[in-house]
Amino acid sequence: MHHAGVPGVTTLYATRGSGNSFKPALALRQLGIPHDIRLVDVLSGETRASSFLTINPLGQVPYLVDANGVGLSQSNAILWHIAEGSHLLPARPAERAQMLQWMFFEQTQLEPGISPARFYTVIVPDREHEFAREIPQWRSKARTALAILNDHFAVSDFVVPSHGYSIGDIALYGYGHLASEAGVDLADFAHVSRWIRRVENTMGFVSLEDIFTPKYSPIMAVEAA
Length: 225
Ligand SMILES: N[C@@H](CCC(=O)N[C@@H](CS)C(=O)NCC(=O)O)C(=O)O
Fold this sequence. Notes:
By secondary structure, the protein is α/β, with parallel strands linked by helices. It has helices at residues 19-30, 50-53, 75-83, 93-123, 134-155, 167-176, 190-200, 208-211, and strands at residues 10-14, 35-39, 63-65, 71-73, 220-221. α1 (19-30) runs parallel beside α3, α1 (19-30) runs antiparallel to α6 and α5 packs across α7. The radius of gyration is 17 Å and the shape is globular.
């Protein structure tokens, strides 16, 4: 098998500023799993370069190559693999299913609103005019999802309250905490705001801004291969 990482070492391919890349990076840190981070520059097209496509034919980050050389795409699948057997993954079947329910909610209802609205206004603002019609729709989708989450956190401390902090919280936090950068005021969602502070107070938490800096990312290589 082609080994895209270093044998025996977990390697995470990630891009700076991405909520999806942040999620597995945070789980690796909070679980104390030794790992390398390889930064891939999405904006310059590095995910479409042949050097990266030989590593991940899907052409996306985050991408994990585990210590055995097994490669995995999709941030939430990566979270699951990283957290297996740890306190971040509930052991009870019903709690695992509840957690997955919210992780699918994240990918289908929360991220698709917040991520593009933020991307085209904050990351590549010169393209904002191309999406003048979509941006309000993305914001509205984000507000609908945040309202559902707000009701959940009105009665629950964490995504799976009977378990406590889990990768479900990490998944929803990834883009949830970026809502204001997408033009959606989190002050309108008081229970979500309190939960965000709860996540930020968990042991070993590192912010999206800090996690892909030399201080926190063990090995930095801007080249994808
Ligand atoms: N559903 C995927 C989304 C991954 C994704 O959208 N990755 C973006 C960066 S945040 C990417 O790699 N884009 C580059 C490209 O598509 O060429 C996940 O949760 O990991």
